[in-house]
Amino acid sequence: MTRPAARGSADRLARLLNLVPYLLARPGIEIAEAAGDLGVTERQLREDLELLWVCGLPGYGPGDLIDMAFDGDRVTITYDAGIDRPLRLTPDEALALVVALRMLAETPGVANRDAVERALAKIEAAGDLVGAPVAVRLPGDTRRVEALRAAVAGGKALRITYYTAARDETTERVIDPLRMLMVSGRAYVEAWCRRAEAVRLFRADRIDAVTELDEPASVPPQAVPHDLTEGVFRPSADLPLITLRIGRGERWITEYYPCERVEAGDGDQWLVSLRVTDLGWARRFVLGLGPEVTVVAPVELAEQVRATAAAALDAYAVPAPTVVPASTGLSPRPGDDPEHAPSGDPAVAGRTQ
After folding, report:
1. Which stretch of DSSP H or E encloses residue 186?
2. d(CA 97, CA 131)
3. pLDDT tens across 86-142, in order?
4. Alpha-carbon gap, residue 201 to 187, rounded angstroms
5. Count of CB atoms within 10 A of residue 5's CB?
6. Residue 336's CB: how many other CB atoms inside 10 A?
């Protein structure tokens, strides 16, 4: 329930924001006439004008605050501090807000969804956008996200089949859901994983199957949701630290991954140190970067990269056997080269390899 004081403050703020453009359009207007137009008393209008004296842009010094001139009972705005139009949304602004609110309503894990829906309804009504042909869909499998959201809302434990990209493996787990959330455009289920005995994040697009169990979700007291204000991956001292020597073409690594140390090396090379979830992920990461990247540390990672690269080269070391076309039993046509004619003769067939 909105308190009267809060409602009065909100009404006054709206009135002040509309007052400046109103006065700009009517320089020298009498205060009594302005009060009548605005539906307030002269005393209230004078109090609003006194408040405007101390409103303006950050800095709040000369040239930052709203300024006005009085001539008897007449008032003129001489500096508007950028508030030069009424507090009304243009059609484009209203549509942009509708799209943003609809996307917010579709986002998993949003609290106070009812408040979002109420704000959306008000803006659509004010902007004559009710029933506007605007459809918002988040990236990814929307049906899967909706199914997961319903399962999490049901308050039951879930059995999931999950693909872990870092280890390139698929496992079955029983989880006790905490919440659905959206991070960097991807939907996640945050839950207590009974297999890991810890809170884990499960990407919705990597959950291959979900079964709702008969038992209710049982989240232990030590289960604390992650702080995701800086993203899903949070480097910590207990994770492996790798050091790479990179060329100019791979410097983008320092912009896309949280690096603990970046130092200039010989020539255009940089030494970059960063934390990784495990060395298996780091091995695949380095192999995908190309020849301008060299593993400096740890030695174990360098050996894994070398062994994997050598195995890949060995796969191409021996030429693949040539497949001999099967004989058709046809006789060569006049003018055909007998050497390349289809034949069951091994001597002829040998020359076509």
Report:
1. strand 186-193
2. 15
3. 656 677 777 788 778 877 776 655 556 677 777 777 777 766 665 666 666 655 556
4. 10
5. 8
6. 12
